[in-house]
Amino acid sequence: MFILGKPRGFGKLARLPGTLWESGKPRPTGETVSRGGEGPLCITGNVVEIKDAVSKNRGEIEKALDEIKKEIGFTLVTQNFLSDSTENDWKAFLDAAQAKGIKVLATFLPASPPKWTGNGFDLGVNETFLLKMQNHPALFGFFLIDEPFHKKHEWQITTKRMQQLYRQAKDIAPNVPMFVGFSREISKGETDPKFSDFRFAKGMCDYCGMSALEFRNYGDGNKFYKDMLLDNQTVSRMVVAREDPNAKIYSTVQVFGSVSGKSSYYMPSEEELQEMVDTLLSSQLQTEKELDMLVWQSWRSFDVADSGQLNLSKPQFEGHRNIAREACGT
Questions:
Q1: How far is 112 from 18, CA to CA, in rounded Å?
Q2: What phi, psi does 60 have (nearest 5°)?
Q3: Rounded to 5 degrees, what are φ and ψ at 103?
């Protein structure tokens, strides 16, 4: 969920009306700003590794939920489920969350995305979950699909088809907020003619995401690719504000990296993480469209063994958790 491929720069961006490039306006600098109010809604996940999100493991699920509330103060979490998990597994998890006063964003990604059939989408286990669990009081929302305008979906999901997918899901569970994660697709659709069939439009998501997984190593050392973040966030927020002003938006916040150091992702330092948060919440970016949510990725790993990943749950990252607490008012 939310994982990116290798980023591409936006060195040839045109000056787009209404963006920070118009009339020579300065780009955001990532300055620290007074947030005011309660700040953005914040969510973290996974609660447990995907293999452990089953009914027989309820005790460990409850323990992990307690840990999140104690260590970071969040009452909203993400959880991936196995594609062959059952209603008993889902209910056990959501019941445990309800008992702890926690809401859940559920998903089966990346293993079981909706699939285009030629005239509609086969939602598979996603449909079963929504039919069975849509009225559970602990269910906050459902993560429907990640990076729809990406080659991993074999370029099958165009703008119109993404709108169709959203309608299918809402027809099943009209009161469940649908989350869709975009990496740089919104920006590409706006700035690159090759992506004209893959543009953001109204009626794709209730919570529309854009990535900030920019602590990377492409062979020249660990770096914060801040310019890529600024380009993507600025254009993406502007486009969502223009096309679907009532949609809520979120951004990932990268708090993971490989223990071995072999992944292109690395765990940021406290200083780097603070700079990312300040950039995402900077006044200039917020003017484009204010973030409704920060997704702190990740608490536990979902795609590799948690022992192989540095993440927000590890004891040595208390300083990172402090940054999250301050940003989120917990």
A1: 38
A2: -70, -35
A3: -100, 155
Domains of the chain: 36-328 (3.20.20.80)
With vertex at residue 308, the alpha carbon angle to CA 305 and CA 314, rounded to the nearest 5 degrees, is 100
HEC-encoded secondary structure of 130-172: HHHHCCCCCEEEEEEEECCCCHHHCCCCCHHHHHHHHHHHHHH
Concatenate the DSSP letters of all residues of 101-132 into one string. T-EEEEE-TTTS--EE-SSSEE-THHHHHHHH
CA–CA dist 216, 224 (Å, integer): 7
How far from 256 is each of 18, 27, 225, 307, CA to CA, in Å? 34, 27, 15, 12
pTM of the model: 0.89
Tokens of 102: 């926690």
Contacts of 152 (CB under 8 A, 6+ apart): none
Cα–Cα distances (Å) from 307 to 150, 257, 258, in that order, read 29, 11, 10
pLDDT band at 64 (very low <50, low <70, confident <90, very high): very high
Identify the DSSP state of 319.
H
Contacts of 53 (CB under 8 A, 6+ apart): 46, 47, 61, 79, 80, 81, 82, 85, 89, 93
257 DSSP β-pair partners: 310
List C-alpha distances in Å: 1 to 10, 48, 147, 180, 306.
24, 15, 9, 10, 15
Q: Which helix (H) or strand (E) holds 4?
A: none
Cis previous bond, 175, omega within 30: no
In one-letter notation, the amino acid at residue 199 is R
Read off the pLDDT of residues 127-184 as tens digits, 9 standing for 90 and up.
999 999 999 999 999 999 999 999 888 899 999 999 999 999 999 999 999 999 999 9
